[in-house]
Amino acid sequence: MVYDVIVVGARCAGASTAMLLSRKGYRVLLVDRATFPSDTLSTHYIHQPAVARLRSWGLLDRLAATGCPPIPTYGLDLGPIALKGCPTPYDGVDVAYAPRRIVLDALLVEAAAAAGATVRTGLSVHGLLQEDGRVVGIRGRAGGTEVVERTRLVVGADGLRSTVASTVNAPIYENRGTFRCAYYTYWSGVPLDGFESFGRDAFGAAAVPTHDGLACITVLFPRSQFKQVRGDVERHYLAALDQTSLGERVRAGTREERWYGTGDLPNRHRHPYGPGWALAGDAGYYQDPITAHGITNAFRDAELLTDAVDRCFGSGTAMDVALAEYHRRRDDSARRMFRLTCDIASEPPPPEILRLVRAMVGNQPATDRYFGMLAGTVDVDDFFADDHIAAIFAAAAGEGQPLEEQVQAG
Length: 410
Ligand SMILES: Cc1cc2nc3c(=O)[nH]c(=O)nc-3n(C[C@H](O)[C@H](O)[C@H](O)COP(=O)(O)OP(=O)(O)OC[C@H]3O[C@@H](n4cnc5c(N)ncnc54)[C@H](O)[C@@H]3O)c2cc1C
Description:
- This protein is 39% helix and 26% strand.
- The protein is of the alpha+beta class.
- The strands form three sheets. Strands 1, 2, 5, 6, 7, 8, 17 and 18 form an eight-stranded mixed β-sheet that branches. Strands 3, 4, 10, 11, 12, 13, 14 and 15 form an eight-stranded mixed β-sheet that branches. A three-stranded antiparallel β-sheet has the order 9-16-19, with no helix packed on it.
- The chain binds flavin-adenine dinucleotide.
- Flavin-adenine dinucleotide binds next to helix 1, strand 2, strand 6 and helix 9.
């Protein structure tokens, strides 16, 4: 059997892509070397636009029914300055979620299977079939048996160290290097006020409520400190949190799991398509998790790539034309958040961001829009438009009306 599409990697990007393509009636094979449910190295914050996608895919109620708490508020504490607010809603969605990946990814795989995709887990892809310069299938291994499957398109949704991307030599561009390393774990008995984030000169930290009443708390250290931190994670992690209001709460709570960590957090894009292949999610695009956009981006790629494949197989658009459009739409949607993420992740955060945050203290409409911009519900360019920034500084200096009054005044 020749599949229309084989998707390699069955988490946020791959399972979503397989589900959407299957719902359109395409014959899809979804493979992963992992089995599900299973965990992966990632924390969990899903911004409002991605929650809206889960809702439009009919999966939000199922996620909520797993006991994952909704997160309406967003906090940013920079030491002397702190902001609290509610990100501008997106298409009526005014909460975020932070599901355990063991729950979210299994739910997506089940949805792909329910949509008609053939799902084969425990299958590790080690090569691609190529004929006349075109990818036409995968070679893999499952339980000691060699597997060969043929297709019209292989989608590499196989993460940061994508076998598909490296096999086809997908070119890397916008390579900004690595700014941070991250360590996180799970705590019981640590009360949180929604999503809490902290920025200090030498680290950033984030805390989210997740399943089972646990708080998932991450510290992002400068990449230059990776060896040092790895040598004694607990000491460095707690010393960092002691500089925030989380320190006391965490010390009164209980650590429920092991330490999870990585120093492999590059910032770069890969050219996401070629003859017979395409990339989705982390395989094609990676940015520091400090702005927590990886899952949101993976869902976006799933929709954009499904559109492109459908125009090609459904309406006869040439594959390279459809996939070039996918590439353009992905990069247009990602460009500003990518640069902002690199700015925020760089050490130390640029002074203009500190000045801006200081100017928003006491200005709730601007604060909510700022958090909306970080969540992707307010366009980054609109937020940073000269007149919008000038209005924030004018309001801070007492020279203008707060933004809300300006908006109401028309
Ligand atoms: C510390 C940390 C914290 C993060 N926190 C957040 C956050 O709060 N919010 C957020 O949105 N994002 C976060 N991210 C980013 C997020 O985890 C990723 O962007 C997201 O997981 C990308 O999904 P994906 O489906 O592209 O890839 P992955 O989740 O990496 O899935 C890839 C899949 O491919 C499979 N695979 C790989 N190679 C093969 C092969 N050869 N054969 C078969 N299968 C294969 C793997 O088994 C895996 O299941 C974080 C990342 C890190 C490292």
